[in-house]
Structures are given as structure tokens and as C-alpha cells.
């Protein structure tokens, strides 16, 4: 390639790579700027969100309390009653470890069920319900419904003694009944819900109603106890007429249960027989009433004591004691922390609510503007979409750059992993080699291995001796040491044949005998004499006349040799001792001569006179 072409290519490369480098640098700068911007946006948004969540989390107790107080306020409760309710809720939460928010929510149900609560009566009703719920292992909502039911039944008594004092008595009596009759606040609530106001309308005191319902719950549920008690009240007027007994006083109010039981015992005794039960069923008009009377008659003295005990309960000290005994200190700690935050941030919550309200009002105004001016809303929408799209482009560019780096890193990891795998493979091969050497060492350290190798070597040696036995015997057959070797080989073969799987039939001493040393020496002498004899002229020389005689002259040296050879006295013969030995050996080995019968020679053309002459010349001196 010429220098001009090379310089031209270099210039073209420079012209292409420089702009590409600039473009790459610009793309990288754009991606970096976009990434930094996104990171700043994400950091700012995360910080703003974290700040918002932190503020909201700090204000949440006050916010939750404010929500529940707002619900109660919607029922027409004055601000003074709301402040008393909030203070009582926080004190109750810190003292018993219960939720102040749930306490405040229960006030809404109480205010809905009991109209006309004034001052701190709402707070007292709610506190009594909360304490009774804690004392009887019931939820606040269930006890709140119970208090509403009891106020509906004993409204007149509550108004006579005062709602706050009455509700505390109800809480104390109910807690005592739960403790006495091994029931729960929920079951007592169901019992009074089933009974309704029938007993109170008949002039029966709360103490007696609660004692009867509690004693019946020893063998049945609260709702079933209320149903049986109600059946008895419904049939008591009819029963007194049929039985000829008096169950009501002069004012028409029913007599206390103990007086009714005493009249029945005077008529039927301590227990009721089958016929007596049938009579009572007919008198009261139901089996539920008779079942209740049987149960109460069996323990009339206990019923009297329970009624008296419940009548002595004043206030809710018993309920408070039971609630305190079941208070969890860890729950108290958590509730106390909640109460502190609710109280502290509750003071500034109105100001914060004003700011939040202003922001909400601004958003509302902006919403109204977009409705009034559709073009403004459209422009704002397009601006928001454009901003988001620009951010998406930058994010896409950063994504592409990130994918490229990720692929490069992945390729590097792949190559590193592959290299590690190859190193592990190499280590594995080294371990295999070491294991192989160790196994070989263990094998050669075992005497059995050497015995096996010796047997294999011995078999190989015997096989080699068998293969080369003919040559060895031809060479060393006349040596005594060799004959002993044959005996040793035969002995080794016999021992090897004792090994399973080896069966060698060959034997050294069973091979044919080789010629003895004298015969071999005579053969060698015959060969030596034959080599010493003058060469025999070829047939061509024998069939021709002497050259000199053929040309009519004197015979030359070659002709003289030929004439001398044809002389019968000059025919070469082996020594007489060799001939005698050969003849003797021939006679000793006559048994090895094979007979083939007559031999006939056939020729395709008859012999010519010249052939006959040559035949005769060949047999000269024979």
C-alpha cells in the first residue's frame, strides 16, 4: 500500500472517529445530567414524603382523637363536654392501657342511645362503660350497647338518682355479678336484652333481676336465661289463679322471687315431681317457666344471699379493681405515649388544620378554575405531560446507558465465573491425579498386588518360551542345561494350570527329538566338501563341443577344463566317511520315508536326438 493511500485512510478514520467521540461524550454528559437530575428529584421527593409522613405520624394521635371528637360533636354535644370527654379518654387510656380513640368512639354510641346527657355525664357514662369492659373482658362497643339497654330499662331510676351515679352503680353491680356467677359482661348483656323491660315493669328491682339471670347462667347461656325469666313473668298472673296462690301485692306488682318460691315449696315441697311439673307447665303455660322455677328452688338460699350482696354494691369500685387487676403495664406504656402525643399536638392541631385547610381550599379553587376556564386546564395538562415526557426521555437514555454498563459488567462476571470454573476443574484434575497416585501406592503396598504381577510375568515368560521353543531347541538341544530348562518349564506349566481359567496343554519334553550332534556334524562336513568341489558347468557348456575342436584347431584352456570335467575319474565325490554316515543315518531313519508309488513324467513334446545327447552327457560317470 502506498504512503498516500495510508495517509488518506488515516485521515478518513480521524474525520469519522472525532465526531463520534464528540457525540458519545455528549450522550454521556446528557445521561449523567439526567441521572443527577433524577437522583435529585428522587431525593427531594423522598425527603418531602418522609417529612410529610413524619409530621403526620407525630400528629396522628391528635388527628385520630380530633376525628372521633368531631363525630361526637355532630350529635350536638357542646364544646365543654367534648373537652371533658377528651381529658377523660386520655386519663382512662393511661390508667388502664386501653385505646383513647376507641373510648372516644364509644361516646358517640352512648350519646346516640342516651339523650339529654349534660356536662360531664357523657364522659362519666363512657368511662363506666370502658372500665366495665376492661373488668369483664369485653369490648367497649358491647358494653356500650349494654349500658344503653340498661338505661332504657331503668331510665326512671337513673333519672331519680342521677345518670352519673346510676351508671357507676350499674358498672359495679354488673362486675360483681360477673365475678359471682362466673359469666362475662357479654353474656349479661345478652340476658338483659332477652329479658327486656318486663321485670322492671312488674316492679322487680335491678338487684333481683341481675341475681336471677346470673344464677340461671350457671347451666345455660345469657340469652336463654333471659328467655326463661321472661316466660315466667308472662305466665305468673294466670298461674296464681289456677294454683290458688298469690304472686302479686295489692298494687299489682309481683312479689319478690323469694316469697313466690316459699309459696311453691309449701305446696310441692323442696323438689317437683313429674305430675307437679306438668301442673306447673299448665298453670304458667310454658315449660321455660317451670324449668326456671326448678333451678331456683334447688338453691333458694343462695339466691337470697346473691340478691342481698348485689344490693350492697354502690359505685364502680369493684369494677375498677377488677379492671386494674387485668391491666397490662406494657399496654399502659404504649397508651401513655399515645396520650402524650395526642395532648401535646392536640394543642397546635387547630393551627395546623387551618394551614392544611388553606391548602385544600387552594386546590379546590384551582379545580374550580379549571372547570371555569377549560383552556387553562388544557394548558396545565399539556405542561405536565411535557415535563413527564422529558423526564421519561432522560430516564430512557439513562436506562440505555445503564443497560450497556450492565451488559459489560455481566460479560466480565461471566468470564470471571468461567475462569473460576476452569480453575476449579484444574484443581479437580489435580485432586484426581493425587487420588490415582494414592490408589496406585496403596495397590503396590499390598502384597497381593505383587503376587498377581509375578504370576502375570511368569505367564508372559512361559508364553515367550513356548513361542521361541523350536529355535531354542535347535540351538541348545544338545546341552544338559537346556534339558533341565524343559523340565522347569513343564513344572511351571503344571502349577499355572492349577489357577482357575488357565489351561496350557503344551509341554517341552513332549516335542519331537532334534538330530543328535554327530548327525549335525556329518551334515556340516558334507556341505563343506560340496563347497570345495569345482563348479559344475552349465548345461549350455556341456552340450557344446570344445571351441578349438569345433574350429579345427587346438583346444584352449576352457576346452581343457571341459574335457577334464567330462572325464569319469575327475567327477567330484564326497568323502567316504560322510557317505557312510549319511547311508547309516538314512538306514536308521528309514521309518520316516514316505512312499508315493510310481512317478510318471509327461512331456508335451518328445525328446529330440540332441536332447538325448545332452541327457547322456549329464549322466557321464554316473
TrEMBL record:
Residues 514-555, 569-622 are annotated as: Disordered. Keywords: Membrane, Transmembrane, Transmembrane helix, Viral release from host cell. Residues 87-285 form the Phage tail tape measure protein domain. It comes from the Bacteria. Residues 613-622 have a biased composition (Acidic residues). The chain crosses the membrane at residues 338-360, 380-403, 450-469. InterPro entries: Phage_tape_meas. NCBIfam families: tape_meas_TP901 (TIGR01760). This is Phage tail tape measure protein. It comes from Salinivibrio kushneri.
Amino acid at each position: 500500500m502506498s504512503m498516500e493511500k495510508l495517509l488518506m485512510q488515516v485521515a478518513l478514520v480521524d474525520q469519522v472517529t472525532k465526531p463520534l467521540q464528540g457525540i458519545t461524550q455528549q450522550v454521556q454528559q446528557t445521561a449523567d445530567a439526567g441521572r443527577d437530575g433524577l437522583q435529585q428529584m428522587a431525593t427531594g421527593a423522598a425527603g418531602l414524603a418522609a417529612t410529610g409522613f413524619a409530621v403526620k405520624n407525630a400528629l396522628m394521635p391528635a388527628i385520630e382523637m380530633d376525628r372521633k371528637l368531631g363525630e361526637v360533636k355532630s350529635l350536638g354535644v357542646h364544646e365543654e363536654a367534648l373537652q371533658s370527654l377528651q381529658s377523660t379518654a386520655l386519663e382512662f387510656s393511661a390508667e388502664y392501657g386501653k385505646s383513647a380513640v376507641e373510648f372516644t368512639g364509644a361516646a358517640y354510641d352512648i350519646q346516640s342511645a342516651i339523650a339529654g346527657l349534660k356536662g360531664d355525664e357523657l364522659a362519666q357514662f363512657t368511662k363506666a362503660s370502658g372500665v366495665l369492659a376492661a373488668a369483664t373482658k369485653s369490648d367497649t362497643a358491647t358494653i356500650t350497647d349494654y349500658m344503653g339497654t340498661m338505661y332504657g330499662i331503668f331510665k326512671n331510676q337513673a333519672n331519680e338518682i342521677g345518670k352519673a351515679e346510676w351508671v357507676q352503680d350499674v358498672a359495679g353491680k354488673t362486675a360483681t355479678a360477673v365475678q359471682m356467677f362466673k359469666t362475662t359482661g357479654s353474656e349479661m348483656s345478652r340476658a338483659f336484652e332477652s329479658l327486656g323491660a318486663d321485670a322492671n315493669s312488674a316492679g322487680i328491682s335491678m338487684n333481683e333481676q341481675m341475681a336471677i339471670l346470673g344464677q340461671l347462667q350457671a347451666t345455660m347461656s345469657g340469652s336463654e336465661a333471659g328467655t326463661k325469666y321472661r316466660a315466667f313473668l308472662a305466665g305468673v298472673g294466670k298461674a296464681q289463679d289456677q294454683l290458688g296462690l298469690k304472686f302479686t301485692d295489692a298494687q299489682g306488682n309481683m312479689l319478690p322471687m323469694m316469697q313466690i318460691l316459699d309459696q311453691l315449696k309449701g305446696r310441692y315441697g323442696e323438689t317437683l315431681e313429674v305430675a307437679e311439673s306438668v301442673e306447673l307447665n299448665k298453670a304458667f303455660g310454658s315449660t321455660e317457666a317451670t324449668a326456671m322455677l326448678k333451678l331456683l328452688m334447688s338453691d333458694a338460699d343462695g339466691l337470697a344471699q346473691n340478691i342481698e350482696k348485689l344490693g350492697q354494691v354502690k359505685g364502680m369500685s369493684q369494677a375498677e379493681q377488677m379492671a386494674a387487676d387485668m391491666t397490662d403495664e406494657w399496654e399502659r406504656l404504649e397508651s401513655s405515649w399515645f396520650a402524650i402525643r395526642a395532648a401535646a399536638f392536640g394543642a397546635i392541631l387547630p393551627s395546623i388544620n387551618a394551614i392544611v385547610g388553606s391548602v385544600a381550599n387552594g386546590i379546590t379553587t384551582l379545580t374550580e378554575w379549571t372547570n371555569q376556564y377549560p383552556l387553562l386546564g388544557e394548558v396545565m395538562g399539556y405542561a405536565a405531560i411535557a415535563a413527564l415526557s422529558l423526564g421519561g426521555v432522560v430516564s430512557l437514555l439513562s436506562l440505555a446507558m445503564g443497560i450497556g454498563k450492565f451488559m459489560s459488567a455481566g460479560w466480565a462476571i461471566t468470564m470471571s465465573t468461567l475462569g473460576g470454573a476452569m480453575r476449579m476443574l484444574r484443581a479437580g484434575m489435580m485432586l484426581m491425579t493425587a487420588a490415582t497416585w494414592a490408589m496406585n501406592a496403596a495397590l503396590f503396598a499390598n502384597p497381593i498386588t505383587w503376587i498377581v504381577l509375578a504370576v502375570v510375568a511368569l505367564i508372559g515368560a512361559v508364553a515367550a518360551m513356548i513361542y521361541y521353543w523350536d529355535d531354542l531347541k535347535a540351538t541348545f538341544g544338545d546341552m544338559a542345561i537346556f534339558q533341565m530348562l524343559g523340565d522347569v518349564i513343564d513344572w511351571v506349566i503344571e502349577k499355572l494350570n492349577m489357577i482357575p481359567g488357565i489351561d496350557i496343554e503344551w509341554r517341552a519334553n513332549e516335542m519331537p527329538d532334534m538330530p543328535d550332534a554327530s548327525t549335525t556334524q556329518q551334515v556340516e562336513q558334507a556341505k563343506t566338501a560340496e563347497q570345495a568341489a569345482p563348479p559344475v558347468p552349465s548345461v549350455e557348456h556341456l552340450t557344446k563341443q570344445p571351441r578349438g575342436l569345433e574350429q579345427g584347431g587346438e583346444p584352449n584352456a576352457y576346452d581343457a577344463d571341459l574335457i577334464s570335467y567330462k572325464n569319469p575319474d575327475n567327477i567330484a565325490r564326497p568323502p567316504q566317511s560322510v557317505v557312510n554316515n549319511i547311508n547309516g543315518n538314512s538306514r536308521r531313519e528309514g521309518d520316516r520315508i514316505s512312499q508315493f508309488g510310481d512317478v510318471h513324467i509327461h512331456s508335451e513334446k518328445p525328446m529330440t536326438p540332441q536332447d538325448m545327447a545332452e541327457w547322456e552327457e549329464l549322466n557321464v560317470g554316473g
